[in-house]
Amino acid sequence: MIPFLAVVKKELGSVLRDRTILIAILLQLFIASFSSGLLLGMLSLYDADTILRTSGSRIRIGIVGSADDPFGTFLVERGLTVIPFGTLTQAEWAFYEGTISAIVDTPEAANSITEIKLYLPDSNTRSSLIRTAIQEPLKEYENYLRLQQGIKIHYTDLQGEPSTSFEFVYSVLLPILMFFPAFVAGSLSIDSLTEEFENNTVQTLLAAPLTVNGMVSAKIGSVLILSFLQCGVWLVLLKLNGIAIQNTGWIFLLAFIISGITSTSAALAAVLLKDRERSQFIYALMLLAGVAIGNLLNLSPIITLSRLAVGDHFTSGWNVVLFAIFLIGLYLLLRKVSRQIVV
Amino acid sequence: MNQILIIAWREVTRLRKRFGGTSPFAALSLLVVLGLSAFALRNTISLGSGLYQIGVTGNVSPIHDSRFTVIQVDAEQGKMLLNEHSIDVLIVDMQVFSRDDNKSQYAIHALKQYMEEEELARIRNTYPESQAFPLRVGINYLPASRAQGQNEAPTRPEETIIPSLTPPPLPFAQVLVAMLYILPITFISIFFTSSFMDEKINRRLTVLLSAPVTPFQIVLGKMLLYAVFALSAIVLIAVLTRGNVLLIIAIFLPTVLFLFAIYLMVPLFYRTFKDTTFIAMLVTTLTTAYLVAPAMFTDVNDISHISPLTLAVKMYRNESFGWREYLFPSLPMSAIFGFAMFAGTRLLNEEFLMGYKPITRKIADAIYLLMARIKPYLSVPLWSLLVIPIVYMAQIVFLAFASNLPLGMIVGITLMASALIEETAKSVGIVVLADHGVVKSDREILGLSFLSAFGFFVGEKLLVLLSINLVSEASISSVLFGQGLSLLMPLIAHFLFTTIVTLLKTKAKLLYMAALMVGTLAHFLYNWYLLGGLR
Fold first, then answer.
1. Which chain B residues are Cβ-neighbours of A187 within 8 angstroms?
2. Residue B525: Cβ within 10 Å count
3. Whole-prediction pTM
4. By CB atoms within 10 Å of each CB, which of A247, B304, B427, B519 scores lowest?
5. Residues B392 and B489 in one domain
6. Helix axes B273-295, B388-402, angle to 10 degrees
């Protein structure tokens, strides 16, 4: 046991001394803040609900045409300000004076196809904002016209709350933060193993009272400690930020088990290939394939994690146990392979 | 040229030796696995995968969307499950039931998005087009003011759309296609990095350096093979996605050079294998963010022009762009490539590569090697001028970090951090030269501080000019000549702060970190004053 601990201590010491692990931690912070910043940017520019909520009443739209046309009503119901005009020329004057930001010219009479004209400012930023804001009323108007011709669209009364933020936090942000340490752990275990092989120091290390399996396990153990700490910190930080997470214990365990799976399979690649270049390459491919196969078998750790976090009724600790069984199998395979190969 | 080709051929043999032992069967099964993964991931990975549980009963067409898990229930049982929060939504025939809590409402919103598309597909298949899509919208664009509007013809021809089939302009799809180009380049440049690491571990680099080839030829020769790989991947993607091949090469060549330049730095600075992993991760994330994020705002915000991906997005949308839009992202990238090649040839020597030192010491050594062979009065201002793109990138990254903080602190912390980054950039060259005894007297240090501030100042103004130039031509003159005297103030300020740092470090023998802090604080207070914080 003592040599085992000595290797763990040496590994952790070298990681702390190099200080480059700081890069990985800062990186996770960067990814998290950058992607949420990006999301906010996208939401404020692209999401109609968000635009309407923040600046809906400030978008003033001039309407030319008959008063009984329902399109104006649809616009008002969405929270936009509508100003009626008698003729297009009057509306254009108001547009150039800056009282309205866009003009809609509705038709007098319609045959089977109704055509309306939309006049937008010649600036990309403003015109795409207005187009996003009036997209929903346009669709409602289209449905209204369809109904006039006897075509009924179902499920039009659904409303709900804008769900993008919710989906982003639980299906992107949380999995990134919980599984990024696992991704790093795999790479690190390849690094620390192949470094011994390529620098020919593995024989020296084995001269100590330490078996091959003890050495490999100690290297995996030390990277697992690092990912254990990172996952814990992220969970605490997310909770401090007011993000509600259910089943915290199971989530923590799942993240830890996935770290175990990535670092064990990475170590498998490293003992088989014995050089960094090929091992990292194969490891990257294995990750890709693993995610894909998990998805095909309906066993994705990402989805399991999201479901645990939102408190899904049909997901429990048993789903985590499945991954644990896989990890145990993988570890036994590694022990078998490394005993035969590394001499 | 001959030497470069010889080194490139050496790379081919190296790769053959490394991957040659792999049996064709293993390679084939790998390809199959990759193809399968791409196929499996194509539809299943989406925002919100697996988040919602839906109970369904009666006549409802099957729901295929990775966000929903569908359970068949009967109406009574469904209501019970809904009430005890086991499912989020219950659909009975055409009726949808939900609860008032957030999760159920989110699910309703997601369901609405899905159902809208399904219903559109349904009526498109059942009714003739004129009945299914009875609305046409003609979009016209009006110029900003009347005066222009009366003289000119309409700026763009009318564009007619069908609302439910034409969503507002979102570049997502094209950005994804453009991202396809980045992936293989990143992958290939990792092999490029490994090639240098190999030479370093096997000590063959020593032999190579003693051969009659220059470091420049070595770097170029090694790069050649991988550049050919990267370009062929680009051409392949362009052909597969029916892009304009020549235009795509023109767009992505600077990007390839830029990525190779950055990956050239990785093997030069690493000490252990773990360093390589961390540095490579950093590089991959930052460059992807730098390239992809701005392109999301194509045609929405002028910021998007920073990234060459924007040009590719425009190409896929059949929009045109001019020389200026092409040069704006391409020139800085090519410049960074040039800078990295220069750095690479200077740093490629055994002493620098093999020593194990703290990373800060290693960076200081690198800066010294870059500056040592030119006279200080040239190298110092040049350094300050050339690091400007890096300084600005660092400041943008920092802004992303600061956005997590409470609103009141964002401005203060960002100002402080950007002052620190700027002061470091301006003073580090002089400090390194002084450490090696190249500059000694007070006069030299004062003079160099001024030159460094001057170089930085010129670069800063050039950057402002370039970005304004793209947005509107009219405002250039006001920036250049309008402000007159007030241009002098920032130059003096830059000079003052740089002098504080360099003199404190070299003459008062303060720790560099402490000297930096003093200079940063002064710089911060100056900026704070300009923003009206002290008044």
1. 277, 281
2. 14
3. 0.78
4. A247
5. yes
6. 80
